[in-house]
Amino acid sequence: MRYLTAGESHGKQLTTIVEGVPAHLNLLKEDVNESLIRRQGGYGRGRRMKIEKDLVSILSGVRHGYTLASPITLAVTNDDFKNWEDIMGEDPVDEDQHIRRQVTKPRPGHADLNGALKYNHRDMRNILERSSARETAARVAAGSIAKKILSELGVKVVGYVKEIYGIEASDLPISVDEKIEKSNKSLVRTIDETVEESMKQAIDQAKQDGDSIGGVVEVTVEGVPAGLGSHVQYDRKLDSKIAGAVVSINAFKGVEFGLGFKAAQTRGSETHDEIDYDETSGYYRKTNRLGGFEGGMTTGMPIVVKGVMKPIPTLYKPLESVDINSKEPFKASIERSDSCAVPAAAVVMEHVVAWEVASAIVDQFPSDYMEQLKKSVEDERERIRTF
């Protein structure tokens, strides 16, 4: 499977084209809308979320509630475009009007300056409109299809907030279903109720200070068959693909599996997962310190992956920069006002990880249509169980 996204933050719409989805997957626009609505929620979001109500139109690839195996086109209209048509419209404008509206002051922490240098744009709105995290709505739309495929195969995915500004949620020995329930009830999308108020207070304080804060998101994927990915080439290792997908999310700066960086502080006997076997389950690991991966392949244990999100760089307490025309210093402008986007990022990361897992399954098993894929995965699970 693969997908492309298109669209600008204040453009007409966001578009996602998804290819390679098996035929006969039951898919309704409500399946996508549920994910899009979840992405817009979360404590600490700014005013943009009150303007845009993300709802999808399915323009191709689905007929009478099921997929056709042809490319699926998903479109999310930007309701606010009517206020930006003069700025973001495709028709030419006169030179004076264009110069007056040019963005020439790059914001620290954004793609503004790097993109302008690379693509030779004097108007950095040509960069910031596409580099905006608004694009993650299109990626969540693609991920919602992946989650639908995984659900049909008995694979469950949940994303939740592990940490905000040093306030860390405890690891709770609960099922994925319970994690889904708890994170959906929480305004900060944490599964640890004891830290929810502290996280909210930290977000409120950052907003009061005109600042922003980041955190850590964790995603758990349960029910994945062993052997997804491969050890034979670097670009076939599934944990590598997931890691790359996670750090491609706007503002994400690091990723780890299981113990992750804490493995640098432990001995081998405290790091690796001992193997056991029983006739009911087949092979399994007594622990899951490596987060469900060995040699770039799934072990059959839950995938547990964390991503760290930096504080978003648009602040009410703006940082210093330099105008690319005058070369004079200035205080960076404000484009939006989230004080903390970590709860929303948990939804984005959940869908990004789901895409990589579903894509790996579709790549590995016969998958022209869903019944074929289901039988192939079931047969492989049974083969592995009795190996």
TrEMBL record:
The protein's annotated pathway: Metabolic intermediate biosynthesis; chorismate biosynthesis; chorismate from D-erythrose 4-phosphate and phosphoenolpyruvate: step 7/7
InterPro entries (UniProt xref): Chorismate_synth, Chorismate_synth_AroC_sf, Chorismate_synthase_CS
EC number(s) stated in the UniProt entry for this protein: 4.2.3.5
Cofactor note: Reduced FMN (FMNH(2)).
Entry keyword set: Amino-acid biosynthesis, Aromatic amino acid biosynthesis, FAD, Flavoprotein, FMN, Lyase, NADP
Binding-site positions, NADP(+): R39, R45
Binding residues annotated for FMN, in chain numbering: R130, S131, S132, N250, A251, G295, K310, P311, I312, P313, T314, R336
Recorded catalytic activity of this chain's protein: 5-O-(1-carboxyvinyl)-3-phosphoshikimate = chorismate + phosphate
Function: This reaction introduces a second double bond into the aromatic ring system.
Family note: Belongs to the chorismate synthase family.
Complex formation: Homotetramer.
PANTHER family noted in UniProt: CHORISMATE SYNTHASE (PTHR21085:SF0)
Protein name: Chorismate synthase
